[in-house]
Amino acid sequence: MPRPVIRRLIDAVPTAVLPMVAGVGLSALVAPQPDAAMALLRGLVVTLLLTLPSLAVGTALGTLAGSWAALAPRSAGGLVGRLLAGAGPLLPGFLLAAVAALAVRAGASAAPLGWTALSIPAACQAARLARPAMGRALGPGPEGGAVRMARGLGLDERTVLRHHALPQAVAPVMGGLRAAVLAAMVGAVALESLLDLPGAGALMVDAARAGSAAGAVPVLVALGGLTALLNALGLGVRDWIDPANHSSTPYEGA
Amino acid sequence: MAEYDQPPLSHPVPPETPRAGFARGLSGAAILAALVLACAAAPLMADGSAVHRLDADPVAAALLDGRGSLSFALLAAVLGGLLGIGWALLAGMLGTLAGNRAERRTIAAAQRMAGWPLALLVPLAGGLMGPVWLLALVTALTAAPAVAALAHAELSSLMRAEFLTAARAAGLPESEVVRRHLIPNLTRPLLAAGVLALPRVLAAESFASLLGLGLPPALGSWGASVGLAARLGDPVAFVPRALLLALALWAACAIADGMATGHRKP
């Protein structure tokens, strides 16, 4: 694992791992069911398996589409990027989770639909942030200096885009991943509850429906920790990718 | 390699102007106003079927549900906006009275809270607490940290503005600086920060109601009806409510974005 990611994960121990441990511990101590702590641990794994791949795939595709929208706005990929960037608020995660639940009731398969529903808000957020960042990286302003220099040195366009422009578009996306993580977490809770998946969100909703604070609050604390963990992963990837953090390393792309 | 639609360096594309943000905000406000009016007039369209809402026309029933969602969102947004702005002003006052460290800590708490999934508190409150006003308060609290962070950023940037330094250097008393320069220039940024609460509370309420832990059924809510239709597998009931909810969320976000970009000078 790259060193910046490990550093961010170590920094996130108090805000991510401790709440999860506290949630599981609280659950073992105060929850009414005897196996509540184990159920919460299993639920956290299910929620992580729902959110992490969706965030990764959605962010990657959204970043590519948003970058393409800045490169070639009138191409098919550019139109998809512009559509994603503009449609973000129209497609909240919980509403897409409801659409997925409706499709599952009609006979569709739950897993791919669930992942798709959770990855769309992340893709929208990534496209919204990547499009202007790519525009700035290729533009005449000070942030386009690296690309102009690379072109001036005679590097081919593909190398310039891959090694100089794209990292500048990805860095703000990873920095702004917090909103996508929150949307994915809320969407995952809705999806687990609507599709009866054994995730931590479904545990919290069931406990809240039963009026059991002792069952719901530990799950909420643990979900907060999981959110902080995903945020830290995003920031670690940002530190790893951001060209500003390794400007002193020799160029390896040519 | 394909040719890219990049302008030549001598003709750069100008960045998005505040006017564009203002236009987006205006269109969002128009759509939201139209939705509010349509929802208010929905009982006339329902033709007496308002009591038996499940039998009513799906569009009329969706508009009837919007009355609960929109009125609750407006109430909670006002509360959340006021709480957030109060938080930012408190941080500013602490900065003046107790030093920069207290101000930084107060705002760092808001920024840290804004990164937590506070929307999950709303269904929790809906399940564990009874009254609607308490649910509105919790929903407002979920939006307040983000409002506070934005309001404080605007406040800090205004306090560093050159015209304030110039006014003080010209010998204007502090009360006059506040009355003639600070308050008129502060109103719009704070309002823009407060409006940020509207999409957040609408989304949080709809999410909680979708899980059956939001507004009581008697009040009606887009989220509750969308959740019920999704569970029953009823696309006819699902589509109008989901579309109206998505449209309302887009409009609220457009107003918040438009206010945030529209008040900044180019």
From TrEMBL, chain A:
Family assignment from sequence similarity: Belongs to the binding-protein-dependent transport system permease family.
Pfam families to which the protein is assigned, alphabetical: BPD_transp_1
Upper classification of the organism: Bacteria, Pseudomonadati, Pseudomonadota, Alphaproteobacteria, Rhodospirillales
Entry protein name: Peptide ABC transporter permease
InterPro entries: MetI-like (IPR000515), MetI-like_sf (IPR035906)
Domain ABC transmembrane type-1: 44-232
Entry keywords, A to Z: Cell membrane, Membrane, Transmembrane, Transmembrane helix, Transport
Subcellular compartments: Cell membrane
One GO cellular component term noted in the UniProt record for this chain: plasma membrane
Keyword Hydrolase: no
Domain of life: Bacteria
Segments traversing the membrane: 12-31, 43-71, 83-104, 169-191, 211-233
Any one GO BP annotation for this protein: transmembrane transport
Membrane topology: Multi-pass membrane protein
UniProtKB/TrEMBL annotation, chain B:
Keyword terms of this UniProt record: Cell membrane, Membrane, Peptide transport, Protein transport, Transmembrane, Transmembrane helix, Transport
UniProt cross-references to InterPro entries, sorted A to Z: BP-dependent_transpt_permease, MetI-like, MetI-like_sf
PANTHER family in the cross-refs: D,D-DIPEPTIDE TRANSPORT SYSTEM PERMEASE PROTEIN DDPC-RELATED, OLIGOPEPTIDE TRANSPORT SYSTEM PERMEASE PROTEIN APPC
A matching Pfam family: BPD_transp_1
Protein name listed in UniProt: Peptide ABC transporter permease
Location in or out of the cell: Cell membrane
Membrane topology note: Multi-pass membrane protein
Residue spans crossing the bilayer: 26-46, 72-97, 109-126, 235-256
Gene3D superfamilies: MetI-like
Example GO BP: peptide transport
Record-stated family: Belongs to the binding-protein-dependent transport system permease family.
Record carries keyword Transmembrane helix: yes
GO CC annotation, single: plasma membrane
Organism name: Azospirillum palustre
Transcription recorded as keyword: no
SUPFAM superfamilies to which the protein is assigned, alphabetical: MetI-like
Domain ABC transmembrane type-1, chain residue ranges per copy: 66-256
Main location: membrane
